[in-house]
Amino acid sequence: MRILITGGAGFIGINAASRFVERGYEVTLYDNLSRPGNRQNLAWLAELHGAASFRLTEADVRDAGRLAEAARGQDVLLHLAGQVAVTTSVADPRMDFEANALGTFNALEAARRSGGSPAFLYASTNKVYGALEGLDVSEDATRYRFRDLPLGISETQPLDFHSPYGCSKGAGDQYVRDFARIYGLRTVVFRQSAIYGPRQFGMEDQGWLAWLVIAAVCGRPITIFGDGKQVRDVLWVDDLVDLYLTAVEKIDVVAGQVLNIGGGPEMTTSVWTEFRPLLESLLGREVPVSFAGWRPGDQKIYVSDCRKARQLLGWTPHVSVEEGVRRLFDWVAENRALVE
């Protein structure tokens, strides 16, 4: 089996690549190497499995020709590449559109014209649901809660693209879904919540959980946007990769489907009021922060209803918030020279 992973040198991509190599796949990584940490991730993968365990195509998903060439003969295309931050999309919406909407279209066309019938897995986002302003939300001392959705947001929630990032990822989301209907491509859309884990070089405006851990360990200033009670369901990256592996094995079961993917109601935390005590207990000291205004499209609460993924694929996440954060903290502490 041959797999092409776009964005393969990134956080999710490199963790997925390692697991697919272990499963005996011929792995090709397609990445423009623009993100901090990409080259360190490639060096880690080569050290772990050997330099011959994967191939690298250094190119951009906006380059349709290079992408089509890389996709020929592949059995699986895992599409992770793209622009990842809402704030960046607001500052440069054209680049965001080209990287996400056009880049996803290029990946779909590459798969469609690849000469086979590859499985196509797309990493979408919960941002396609917008700020969820119409839902009834309550507030308590440490977090926001859905009044009427104890199991979280299901795939029946109306789409409401908010911010250029939401629009570009949402456009890709709908193209991926429609290529299954119109062309019979075996695609599946994963609307992912907050993914975290080792080899994540988080930034202030993306990868918030890793960013907070890195900033606390390295003594960087931390700004919390909003009031810190925003709730997210968080998902350890190995649990996500388990899902990818299962989806490839059962692609005919999930072809054409959209699945909400996250930690679910059992694995939630508020961004600061509940996360802070956990972080400070690991660090052994208080973490000072400042606060700023809410960012565009920020959801007061997002929790994934993952029952559809459980029903179709038998998938459930296993790593608790406390265990996952401890593992990430240990990785950051051990690799401080990489993240500083």
What is the structure about, briefly put?
This protein has a 7-stranded parallel β-sheet, with helices on both faces. The chain has 340 residues and is an alpha/beta fold.
Q: Could you please describe the fold and organization of this structure?
A:
- The chain is α/β, with parallel strands linked by helices.
- It has a single domain, classed as NAD(P)-binding Rossmann-like Domain (Rossmann fold), CATH 3.40.50.
- It is 41% helix and 19% strand.
- It has 13 helices and 15 strands.
- The chain has helices at residues 11-22, 38-49, 64-71, 86-91, 93-112, 163-183, 208-218, 237-249, 251-254, 275-283, 307-313, 321-334, 336-339; strands spanning 2-6, 26-31, 54-58, 76-79, 119-125, 137-139, 144-146, 186-192, 194-196, 223-225, 231-236, 257-261, 268-270, 290-292, 301-302.
- A seven-stranded parallel beta sheet has the order 3-2-1-4-5-8-12, sandwiched between helices.
- Strand 1 (2-6), helix 1 (11-22) and strand 2 (26-31) form a beta-alpha-beta unit.
- Helix 1 packs parallel to helix 2 and helix 1 packs across helix 8 (237-249).
- The model has no long low-confidence stretch (mean pLDDT 96).
